[in-house]
Amino acid sequence: MNEKAERLRQARINARYRFASDAANALGIVASTYRAHENGQNDFDFAEAKIYARKFNVDPVWLMGGVPDVRIGISIPIPKPTEIEPPNAGPPNKVVGQGKKIPVFGQAVGGVDGEFLMNGTVLYEIMAPPVLSEISDAYAVVVSGDSMYPRYEDGEVCFVDPTRRVRKGDYVIAQIRLEEGGALLAYVKKFVRHNSSELVLEQFNPQKELRFDARTVHSVHYIALAGNA
C-alpha cells in the first residue's frame, strides 16, 4: 500500500467509518472505486482528494502526500455565520433535492475488442458521483465483454467526464466511425496517443494496441471512475 492510500485509510478510520463500503456510501460513490483508491490499486487525483478530505475532515494536501495545514484527527474550524434577520417570505413548499442524474449508454454488439454501439439510446439514468456533479455533459457507459479485464469487468459502469483533458495512461471511451455514414462504435480502452494521423489505444485481453485513422475518430473522453453501480 502506498503512502496516499495509507493516509486515506487512516483518515477514513479516524472519521469513524468502520468499513470502506460505509465511507463509499456516505460519499455517494461506487464502493469498488473507493476501495481501489484506499488499497492503492488505483491512484486518485487532487479533485477526488478534496471530496474525501471534506468528508473525513482532513487537509486534501495531506491526503496527496504533502505537509498538511490541518493534520489528521484535528477538526477543521468552521467560521460562525453572521446573524441576519430572518426572511419575511419563503417558498410555499419545501424543495427537496435528489442530486443529479446522468444517462447511461451501451448496447453490446459482440465485437472481439469489446466495442459497442453508441447510437444515443439511453439505457437508464444513474446518480452522478460527486466528482461529476458539476459537469453538465457527464455520462456513463456499460462495459461490454472482458477486453479490459482486470481493470474493467463485463457489465461494469464507467463514469465519463467529457470536459477533462486526456493524457497518456488515462482510461478513456473513444467513439469511432469506421465507415462514412456508419454507426458510432465506442471502445473503453487505455489511452496511448492521439495525433493528426492516428489514435492509438491499449487493450488488455488479449494484449494489443488498437490503431484508428484520425479521420474516423469522433471523440475521446476521460473515464473518471468506474464500478458496479
From TrEMBL:
InterPro entries recorded: Cro/C1-type_HTH, Lambda_DNA-bd_dom_sf, LexA-like, LexA/Signal_pep-like_sf, Peptidase_S24_S26A/B/C
Domain HTH cro/C1-type as annotated: residue spans: 21-63
Organism: Sinorhizobium glycinis
UniProt-recorded Gene Ontology molecular function terms: DNA binding
Coiled-coil stretches noted in the UniProt entry, renumbered to this chain: none
Keyword annotations from UniProtKB, A to Z: DNA-binding, Transcription, Transcription regulation
Superkingdom: Bacteria
Transport found in the keyword field: no
Protein name, UniProt field: Repressor
